[in-house]
Amino acid sequence: MGYTIALAGKGGTGKTTIAALLVRLMKEKKKGSILAIDADPNSNLAEALGLQAKETIGGILDGISAHPDKIPAGMSKDRFIEYRIQQAIQEADGFDVLTMGKPEGPGCYCYVNNCLRNTMGKLIKDYDYIIIDNEAGLEHLSRRTTRCADLLLVISDATTAGLRSAQRIHELAEALDIDIKKSFLIVNRSASLAGGERVGRTGLPVLCAVPADKQIEKISLDGNSLMDLKEDAVSLNALRELGDTLWALN
User: Fold this and answer.
1) How many CB atoms lie within 10 A of CB 142?
2) How many domains does the chain contain in total?
3) Which is nearest to 166 in space by CA: 175, 174, 155?
4) Alpha-carbon distance 144 to 122, whole Å?
5) CATH number at residue 127
6) Which residues contact 150 (CB under 8 A, 6 or more apart)?
7) Is pTM, for the whole model, over 0.85?
8) Residue 177 CA: distances (Å) to CA of 118, 120, 134, 159, 166
């Protein structure tokens, strides 16, 4: 059974950046097979990892809904969806990526979530590590896109709004009784754990602070991949130190 790490946080706090950097470090450490799941409808994880998302779960469901005649005779709709989602997994050097996306046509978005949950339940058996970049805010928890995780990393910046959101995510995860083994806070774009009292109110133990990184800012502006980040980048060094702690949690 794969070790599942879910990331959550307010939009703009760098959640997808941290997810991509963790994938890069896992690949660097050769920790085993890795599946990165972009569960955010505003899909950016594949691009951050140097890929272009070719197919999404939302797009697959739209296509099947528009052309049900494409389902092979003798194959159920659910089985065909599962088959198509397996085909949508992109293989890269050292990791795979699956993008959730969002349906463009009419239909219940909850169905996309349900397909993702069912698919994840089967995929986690095939990988050593699964990194799930959830959508910003609380929606993924309220819809229970993330039903269980070995580790929940709540990403925030040092702002009051970011930390309040982190607190609400933590409280909602507990209220929904989601099966999460351990939860931690990562304070992003902060040289230190400034505002300790506000950080403490989140109720989450702090795993680390990741300093602002000018290399990441340039890469984002240029639209390049975080896999191109130089080895001496301050963000990578901070997360490398975190890495030993993360592996010990497994």
Assistant:
1) 11
2) 1
3) 155
4) 17
5) 3.40.50.300
6) 3, 4, 5, 180, 181, 182, 249, 250
7) yes
8) 19, 19, 18, 27, 17
